[in-house]
Amino acid sequence: MQNVQGFSKDFLWGGAIAANQAEGAYDADGKGLSTADMVPYFDKKDYVNLKELMHVTSDSIQKAMAHSSAEGYPKRYGIDFYHRFKEDIALFAELGLKVFRLSINWPRIFPNGDDLTPNEEGLRFYDEVFDELRKNNIEPLVTLSHYEMPMNLVLNYGGWAGREVIEHFVRYADTVMNRYKDKVKYWLTFNEINTTIIEPFTGGGIVEDRVDNVMQASYQALHHQFVASSAVTKLAREINPEFKIGCMLARMIHYPATSKPEDVLQAQIDNQLNLLHTDVQVRGSYPPYMARYWAEHGVSVHMEPGDLDMLKQHTVDFISFSYYTSLVSAVNPEEYGVTGGNLYSTIRNPNLPRTEWGWQLDPIGLRVALKEMYDRYQLPLFVVENGLGARDTVEADGSIQDDYRIDYFRQHIQQMKEAVKDGVDLMGYTSWGVIDIISASTSEMSKRYGFIYVDQDDHGKGTLNRYKKKSFGWYQKVIASNGEDL
Ligand code: BGP
């Protein structure tokens, strides 16, 4: 029976980051180049045309591969978490985090992806990080691939469109799950797996100008990720039956622009295309609506014998997702104005405020998403990303008065609590960018999410000192009161 009063007493309050946006040290201790290392700082501030912002081409890759420093490539230097993790984890402990979501940087472990033996120095680094977390009573929640893969797999296998990548990923997962089997219990296979369709390079290592048909390549890559994810789930259960394996979706809830049935139908289609991913990973099979969609778009996904069985037999233990904004669908979208978001732009919703980056803020949408996903799957849910990207100002006295961030979190956590009272089985919540990191979509440092401020500008200048923002004390109170004191 759910606790109608609010969050369960073992609710996992936490914070999240990703290796490629935080660690830096992009070529230290044997690490190979990753897809994230190819993304330059982008000076144009067109936050609506995100395709352009996140776009990586054969030419830009060639340039990046020849560029042998971190300058101009912010994800290569991150916030130097690689060298400062002890200081950061001490701050997380002070904040009261019970769980910390991070990712393992795949090319730190297998620099080329297809190497047969792992890089010991990379493995040692995560041993130290997990030990430090455990010492501070913080449970790690680990994503195996968060928006990066070894570049060699992109150049030589076509990224995830290449079937061989499954075997390389499984070897990587086998290595780290065995190594950390007593240190890590919660694992996610792919961050925002739907990104492979929306942003094929970031999600699937697909260079769009190197394939004939981007949509075809993306769905093929996604299929390989589904199979890899199931194979890793199977393996995980053999390595340690106590492991809990989750899928991870960028939940993009679509509202119809009007009550016109055509718009309602369009919103339903868009919601289905988003939930396709959890349908496969939770229910264990492709939903019936995909056959027609693929046929109408000339997509034909090649599947090997045994693939569908693998998907069926090894489904996840829990569902995690990110939630930042809601989207709007219309049968004639060109009749409306558009706004940004980090994965794609959407129609403007006149009922919602927007950030400078065009993200529409919708706390109630989080409750809707939670209820609807629990209705659909009846599996424990975990909100593993939610947060506000904003520019912060350091006052003359050194303080950062981020009341806007407190308001954002208060409203979202409030709605989450309502969903729990509605009966949703919610395991935990990890706020995104618990400490300021490099933005995934814009590579800016100045789009900040943290409760902890990092002194660094968009061009990598600054002391890298960490400072507590006003929101730090607020979130500390929220955790200490188990979500009662908002
Ligand atoms: C999610 C990603 C994160 C992340 C966050 C905020 O889609 O999983 O890696 O950074 O969005 O996005 P951004 O950094 O673009 O503001």
Automatic annotation (TrEMBL):
Q: Which PROSITE patterns match?
A: GLYCOSYL_HYDROL_F1_1 (PS00572), GLYCOSYL_HYDROL_F1_2 (PS00653)
**Gene3D superfamilies hit by this protein:** Glycosidases (3.20.20.80)
Q: Which EC numbers does the record give? A: 3.2.1.-
Q: Where is the active site?
A: E385
Named from the GO MF annotations, one term is: hydrolase activity, acting on glycosyl bonds
Any idea which UniProt keywords this protein has?
A: Glycosidase, Hydrolase
Pfam families referenced in this protein's UniProt entry, alphabetically: Glyco_hydro_1
Question: Known InterPro entries for this protein?
Answer: GH, GH_1_N_CS, Glyco_hydro_1, Glyco_hydro_1_AS
Indicate the family of this protein. Answer: Belongs to the glycosyl hydrolase 1 family.
The identity of this protein, by name, is Glycoside hydrolase family 1 protein
**Organism from which the protein derives:** Paenibacillus shunpengii
